[in-house]
Amino acid sequence: MLGMRVHVVSDVHGRADALAKAGDGADVLICLGDLLLFIDYEDHSQGIFPQLFGAENATRYIGLRTAGRFDEARALSAELWAGLGGDPREHLERAVRAQYAELFAALPTPAYLTYGNVDVPRLWADYVRDGHHVLDGRTAEIGGLVFGFVGGGLPTRYRTPNEVDEEEYAAKVAALGRVDVLCSHIPPAVPELLYDVVARRYERGSEALLEAIRETQPRYALFGHVHQPLKPRTRIGRTECLNVGHFRARRTPYVIEI
């Protein structure tokens, strides 16, 4: 397809209203994951955590994590979950499912999706609709080009729900082979793509993605995950590496004409 217009979003984090319009004017929409909003560091009243425990407790939790006091943050979280009564996993799953029901209902078609590190892949099958294509370690031909998708994140001290070990992640990258467009949630392991200038920390990137880019030189490498990167783009050989932006904040997709 000549002159194909592709809209790309990542880090939707509960923004169903904007997601509904993200495919307007596009031939295809690509979503690079993190649909869920567990907690909003800007607005402490938004997300699953404050929904269950209130904004004041969300502020306490965020303060501990921001200060690097992760053991105390986990202790607070455990105390709050215990206070709900019953099985905490049931409370969490109900809240997650409510968000997914709204988000997938809003997601336009056609759309090609992969998982983010805060997503819960086992639940997606209950909400995808006709025209939603979920890929992880797999490729799809779109407009005559081969797009490869790698979902999830790598292990971190934050212990987000969809972190996989380096070997498993590298195997998913290797399974793609040569592609024209490499789509992932996390960036390749390039320091300037990984540093978040607002959070003032490095996020985790993938050496396997970086190696694949160097060896196979896709036209584009598209990713998200780092909300405010030091550099949103760079070139590795002929590959244009692009952070498509924090969709929850931007509310507009990244547009590529291919």
From TrEMBL:
- SUPFAM superfamilies attached here? Metallo-dependent phosphatases (SSF56300)
Q: Name one GO biological process term.
A: cell wall modification
Q: Which domain of life is it from?
A: Bacteria
**Single Gene Ontology MF annotation:** hydrolase activity
Pfam families in the record, alphabetically?
Answer: Metallophos (PF00149)
Record-annotated Calcineurin-like phosphoesterase domain positions: 4-229
Name the record gives this protein: Icc-related predicted phosphoesterase
Q: Which organism is it from?
A: Thermopolyspora flexuosa
